[in-house]
Amino acid sequence: MTVQPERVRAGAARSALTPYLRLLTVTQFAFNVGFYAVLPYLAAHLGDGLGMAGWLVGLVLGLRTFSQQGLFVVGGALTDRYGPRPVVLAGCVLRIAGFCWLALAGSTATVIGAVVLIGFAAALFSPAVESETARAAVAHEAGTGTPRAQVLAVFSAAGQAGAFLGPLLGTLLLFLGGGFTAACLAGALVFIGVLAGHARLMPHRPRTTTREPGRGRFPREVFANRPFLVLCLAYSTYLLSYNQLYLALPVEVERVTGSQSAIGGLFALSSLLVVGAQLPLTRWSAHRIAPRTALVAGLAVVSAGFAAVPLVPLVPGGPAGLFPAATFVVLLTLGQMLLIPAARGLVPDLVDDPRLGLATGALSSVSGLAVLVGSAATGTLLGTPGPVLWTALAAVPLAGAALALALPRGGLARAPEGTGTD
Predict the structure, then answer these.
(1) What is the pLDDT of residues 161-200, one digit of tens each?
(2) Helical residues (DSSP H) of 105-243, grouped into ranges
């Protein structure tokens, strides 16, 4: 009986993150701290600070999203070609330049240039970091038996922690009177630290200078890979659903309370749930259900979140009136915690390793395009009665869950002896 703690400690030691995985995880945290110290305040700065019309503010924000999500595939392809180190370093340099430019930008043209540069910077470093994390998680799984989804959950939780702390940093700077310029410069300072750390710590990887026999310029193993495209479409339904935090949720909150002041608290609730529950939930699911099952279940939970809004009894007046919206946020976040590590963990099983960067970028780019088209369609529903709106939205992730059933089931990652599965 006395040897059991020794076995547990040995298993924990084997499953501990490698220094490289810790670097990538801290990178994701720092990226989001710097980014979210600025982004939540950009729309107000453009409208109130620079006097832009509402449609122009929307255009600028849309260009930022497109220059990021739409170009992820470029960053992924460059990562496969040159390795992650130069792509991450170049992305950090561009993000620093973009934040500094945005801090000084005073005209429409300069603002657009700055936000496009900021978005393209993320299109470089995010696919590089995400594909390297997936690659390292697969290697860690092979070496220790720790499920890759568990490693990817640490990565996701670190990103959410950064997304939670970033706005607090921006708010503090605004409260101290620094204004939007100070928030931009603080974001740039964070990325200077990331750049310095990666220049010193990120290992070199030999660049790919020759094509393998049979590999043409068009990477058919990615874009003609039917299971991978099914994964992209299923994942797209999640991203379209997540985008309703910015579209449908504010409408619901304003309908109930008469203002959108409670939105910040609901976003904080989502981030805190991920930070506190992501690792235990993924540790449980990675040892008990296959990745495809986790993806299907996650999308089904997201669908239930939408369906719950018109079904949850509404208590009129006061904070209790937010209960349906809070129920939606909680279920959406729980579904997200199930499906994101599973989806990212499936990519290395569906695509050859030399194309992993391209596939990681394509997953975001295809999903971003679907969100661009789908958001226009769902936006037309915002004026319909609540039950119609939320039922229609619930059908989107449910369709994604049906699509995900066509993916290979895969198997459970075997837990190393002595680690337990609790």
Answers:
(1) 887 888 778 878 877 877 888 888 988 999 999 899 888 8
(2) 108-144, 148-175, 179-201, 220-223, 226-242
Nearest-10 crossing angle of helices 148-175, 323-350: 130
Q: Token pair of 107, please?
A: 């005209």
Those residues with Cβ within 8 angstroms of residue 280's Cβ, 6 or more apart along the chain or in another chain: none
Class of residue 216 by CB neighbours under 10 A (exposed 0-12, middle 13-18, buried 19+): exposed
Q: How far apart are CA 231 and CA 237, in angstroms?
A: 10
| Token representation of residue 25 | 């995880």
The two structure tokens encoding residue 26: 């801290």
| pTM summary value | 0.69
CA angle 116, 128, 297 (to 5 degrees): 100
Indicate the residue type of 262.
A
Structure tokens at 191: 């990325």
Q: Which residues contact 335 (CB under 8 A, 6 or more apart)?
A: 238, 297, 298, 299, 300, 301, 302, 303, 304, 305, 397
Q: Tokens 């990887």 sit at which residue?
A: 205
Q: How far is CA 283 from the centre of its chain?
A: 19
Q: How far is CA 64 from CA 4, 123, 398, in A?
A: 53, 11, 29
Whole-angstrom Cα distance, residue 328 to residue 356? Answer: 34
Torsion angle of alpha carbons 353, 365, 121, 216, nearest 10°? 50
Q: Answer whether residue 73 shows pLDDT above 60.
A: yes
- Taking the C-alpha atoms of residue 374 and residue 368, their distance in angstroms, rounded to an integer, is 10
What is the arithmetic mean of pLDDT over 298-323? 79
How far is residue 52 from each of residues 60, 190, 203, 343, measured CA to CA in Å? 10, 28, 44, 39
The span from the CA of 182 to the CA of 170, in Å, is 8
Burial class (CB in 10 A: 0-12, 13-18, 19+), 371: buried
